[in-house]
Design a protein that fits this description.
CATH architecture of the largest domain: 2-Layer Sandwich
Strand content: 15-25%
Number of strands: 26
Structural class: alpha+beta
CATH topology of the largest domain: Heat Shock Protein 90
Length: 641
């Protein structure tokens, strides 16, 4: 990283002339989803990312060493950096200060012209102005040229001119904003969501200090600083796993940009790859990921051939073989990134595929040759994955025939619905034959199918695909859903657009639900991402008052029902231990009736955090699970033993 003090001495060329206007701020409040994706909790936090990304851009440019984020007790959030500070002198095109121009005009910023930034994540230039437009109040403070400048805004409009508030030795920018509760579904910031994102950014930006303080809860603060960059990130991702060999790392500057890659193998059966372009998480990958995958497969096969681990008669290892148990982080930085979509989920620059392939192919080949013990471990893991893939293919061909996928050989225990339009159909995955019987009798036979599962299904976190397909309960579920698994997965063949997990409201029910969710997360993640997986909410209590029945889904609802009864009312309370205790009419009325039921949709808000939780709770390592239980046991309420 370029020395910050030296850069700050020469930062005078970053002024109003570097701020260029492309178009005015319009329609953001009317159609916020076009700019931040949605107005739910994800859209709310997108506001935070936009401002933090600006501070990260200052750091990548070599002008910022510290970034501080505070969640204020009054509902505001502030981001402060010690970068150059947004210019405050007059911008020629608008006649306004550069600060007001950046904050009130869409596509105005220092990232379009020359002299502002060479590398930037926020190249769309809509970030801070959109945050301003979607806030009831925003206060900008700039520490620059020895002065403190301040300007306040309301719903995107400046309340007054930029004011000089005093003198300071600081340098940088502070943005404080109150999200508009008339636009967002919620304006309550989630500490853990922000924490995970900041940790990620600290790994991606070497030697920058990023701190988070939550004033809503005493002592809730974290600070991140990593000299190792993404090498430290891979170490973090693999900390609870049994690893194979050391951590590979390469950083190289190419004509197309900077390529940084780190990876390590472990003994799990999943791949974990995170890709970034200018510190923006490209969740849908793109050209850099394509180049990395191609080079990984080619390099490992070439090494295995050279040292005759793969014989002449052997087939090459496939892409899936070399990525089983892989944890990798790929970060590229380039001057003109082309992202697909406003949320920047996929990198489109074709030249980055070539750059990543060239850098990784050379460096990883050298690593394997210089670390023969690591190479043997990696190649051995890939060969084992190849053998398991062939065994799984044979098992899949045996148990999931083409006709079965199309519904011709559905499991005998499945009570299917008569409607054949997947958009109208629901599959209830029910714990136990008793509850399954009640559900079959009480359901709407036109649109609701019932699949009872016997006992606890296989823990797929610790199993390969061939073993999974040998498990009857899992096999029945896979065939019923219809999309296939592994290489044959096809979302277009999904037979039900609502797959509802319905288990007892006790410890065993929670365990079974976790096992099923683990299966979906590891092998059918697309179903979760597209919103097809739900969890049924069954009542804990039945309160009988005369001939009237009321149901409570938690203790508070029960107390509210009792509080609403007259003093002399005679009532009885039944605490349900399982779904099987309900007759078909009660199960329909409380849990299955689309007009009355409560379903929770399963989402993946943070894939990294979700992956870590599944690994902790369901993985082979006992110690992380023990620590998790010790940390959270006291927070558990209504534990049935």
């Amino acid at each position: 990283m370029v020395d910050t003090k030296e850069n700050k001495k020469s930062s005078g060329n970053y002024g109003a002339d570097q701020i260029q206007v492309l178009e005015g701020l319009a329609a953001v409040r009317k159609r916020p989803g076009m700019y931040i994706g949605s107005t739910d909790v994800t859209g709310l936090h997108h506001l935070v990312w936009e401002i933090v990304d600006n501070a990260i851009d200052e750091s990548m440019a070599g002008f910022c060493n510290n970034i501080s984020i505070i969640i204020h007790a009054d509902g505001a959030l502030s981001v402060e950096d010690d970068g150059r500070g947004i210019p405050v002198d007059k911008q020629k095109q608008t006649g306004k200060s550069a600060l007001e121009t950046v904050l009130t005009i869409l596509h105005a910023g220092g990232k379009f012209g020359d002299g502002g930034y060479k590398v930037s994540g926020g190249l769309h230039g809509v970030g801070v102005s959109v945050v301003n437009a979607l806030s009831t109040k925003l206060v900008a403070e700039v520490y620059r040229d020895g002065n403190v400048y301040m300007q306040e805004y309301k719903k995107g409009d400046a309340v007054a001119e930029v004011k000089v508030m005093g003198k300071t030795e600081k340098q940088g920018t502070k943005i404080l904003f109150y999200p508009d509760d008339g636009i967002f579904d919620t304006v309550v910031f989630d500490f853990n969501t922000i924490l995970a994102r900041l940790r990620q950014q600290a790994y991606l930006t070497k030697a920058v200090q990023i701190s988070l303080l939550d004033e809503r809860e005493e002592g809730r603060k974290y600070s991140f600083y990593f000299e190792g960059g993404i090498k430290s990130y891979v170490e973090h991702l693999n900390k609870s796993k049994e690893n194979i060999g050391g951590i590979f790392y390469i950083e190289k500057t190419m004509p197309e940009g900077v390529v940084e890659i780190s990876l390590q193998y472990n003994n799990t059966f999943q791949e974990t790859i995170y890709t970034f372009a200018n510190n923006i998480h490209t969740v849908d990958g793109g050209s850099h990921l394509t180049g990395f995958k191609a080079a990984l497969t080619r390099t490992i096969n070439a090494y295995a051939r050279k040292f005759e681990v793969l014989k002449e008669k052997d087939d090459n290892l496939l892409a899936d073989d070399v990525r089983e148990g892989l944890t990798a982080v790929l970060s590229v930085k380039l001057a003109d990134p082309q992202f697909e979509g406003q949320t920047k989920a996929k990198l489109g620059n074709a030249e980055m595929r070539t750059a990543v392939e060239a850098v990784f192919n050379e460096a990883f080949n050298q690593y394997l040759e210089e670390n023969p013990n690591d190479a043997r471990g990696v190649i051995g893991k890939c060969l084992l994955a190849s053998r398991a893939r062939l065994a799984a293919r044979a098992a899949r061909d045996t148990v999931i025939r083409k006709g079965a996928l199309e519904g011709m050989t559905l499991p005998g225990k499945l009570a299917d619905c008569s409607n054949k339009d997947p958009a109208n159909c629901e599959l209830f995955v029910v714990e136990g034959d008793s509850a399954g019987g009640s559900a079959k009798q009480g359901r709407n036979r036109d649109i609701q199918a019932i699949l009872p599962l016997k006992g606890k299904i296989l823990n797929v976190e610790q199993s390969r695909l061939d073993k999974i397909l040998a498990n009857n309960e899992v096999k029945s579920l896979i065939i019923a859903i219809g999309v296939g698994i592994g290489e044959s997965f096809d979302i277009e063949k999904l037979r039900y657009h609502k797959i509802v997990i319905m288990t007892d409201a006790d410890v065993d029910g929670a365990h079974i639900r976790t096992l099923i969710l683990t299966l979906f997360y590891r092998y059918f993640k697309k179903l979760i991402e597209d919103g097809y997986i739900y969890i049924a909410q069954s009542p804990l209590y039945k309160v009988a008052v005369g001939k009237s029945l009321k149901y409570a889904y938690n203790d508070k609802e029960k107390e509210d029902i009792l509080a609403g009864l007259s003093k002399d009312a005679k009532y009885s309370i039944q605490r349900y231990k399982g779904l099987g205790e309900m007759n078909p009419e009660q199960l329909w009325e409380t849990t299955m009736d689309p007009e009355k039921r409560l379903l929770l949709r399963v989402t993946i808000d943070d894939a990294e955090r979700a992956d870590a939780v599944f690994d902790t709770l369901m993985g082979a390592e006992v110690l992380p699970r023990k620590k998790f239980i010790q940390a959270y046991a006291k927070k558990v309420k209504n534990l049935d033993i």
